[in-house]
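User: Let's play a game. I give you a shape written as C-alpha cells, and you guess the letters that built it. Ready? Here's round one.
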C-alpha cells in the first residue's frame, strides 16, 4: 500500500483533532473529551495515547513548529537578500499565529504556555542560521545569536500589540530593514 495513502495513525488523528480544538476553544476551555470526540475516538483511547491535555498541546505545538520550520526552509531558497529571508521567516512564524489569535480570541491563552515559550528557541536558532554570514561580515560586534534573540523578543511584543496581520507585517518589515541596513552599512575592514 502507498505510504501517502495510509490513514493517519491514532496519535496523528489526536494531534490534528487537538489542533482544531485548541484553535476553537483555546487551551483553558478545551477538554480531553472535546479532543477525543474531534478525533473520532473514546476518551479512554485518547488517554492511552496522551495522558493529559498538556501533552496533547505539546504534540500540537511540536507539529506546528516542524511544519513552520519546514515551510521556512523551503522558502528561503527562493529569497535572495537577507531582508527578504528574515521577513519571510518572521511572517511564517508570527503573522499566521497572530491571525489565528485574532480570529479566535480564546487562542491567546496559549501564548504563555511552556510549549509555546520553548518553541521560540527553535525559531531563534533558525534566525541565527539566516543571520550567521551577515553578522560575520559585519563590524557591528553583535553575534548572529544576539540579533536573532532581539528579533524573536520583538516578535513576541509585536504579537501582543499588533491589531492585524497587516500591522504585524509592517512592524516586522521596519525591524528587519533596520537590522539589514545596520549589517550592510558596517562591513568588516579588510585589514582584520
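Assistant: Ready! My guess for every position:
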Amino acid at each position: 500500500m502507498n505510504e501517502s495513502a495510509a490513514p493517519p495513525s491514532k496519535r496523528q488523528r489526536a494531534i490534528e483533532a487537538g489542533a482544531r480544538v485548541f484553535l476553537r476553544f483555546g487551551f483553558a476551555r478545551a477538554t480531553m473529551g472535546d479532543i477525543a470526540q474531534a478525533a473520532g475516538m473514546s476518551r479512554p483511547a485518547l488517554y492511552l495515547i496522551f495522558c493529559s491535555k498538556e501533552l496533547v498541546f505539546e504534540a500540537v505545538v511540536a507539529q506546528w513548529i516542524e511544519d513552520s520550520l519546514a515551510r521556512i526552509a523551503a522558502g528561503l531558497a527562493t529569497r535572495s537578500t537577507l531582508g527578504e529571508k528574515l521577513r519571510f521567516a518572521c511572517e511564517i512564524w508570527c503573522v499566521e499565529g497572530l491571525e489565528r489569535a485574532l480570529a479566535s480570541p480564546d487562542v491567546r491563552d496559549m501564548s504563555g504556555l511552556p510549549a509555546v515559550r520553548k518553541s521560540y528557541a527553535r525559531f531563534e536558532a533558525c534566525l541565527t542560521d539566516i543571520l550567521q554570514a551577515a553578522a560575520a561580515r559585519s563590524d557591528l560586534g553583535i553575534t548572529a545569536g544576539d540579533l536573532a534573540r532581539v528579533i524573536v523578543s520583538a516578535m513576541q511584543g509585536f504579537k501582543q500589540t499588533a491589531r492585524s496581520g497587516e500591522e504585524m507585517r509592517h512592524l516586522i518589515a521596519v525591524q528587519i530593514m533596520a537590522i539589514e541596513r545596520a549589517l550592510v552599512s558596517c562591513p568588516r575592514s579588510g585589514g582584520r
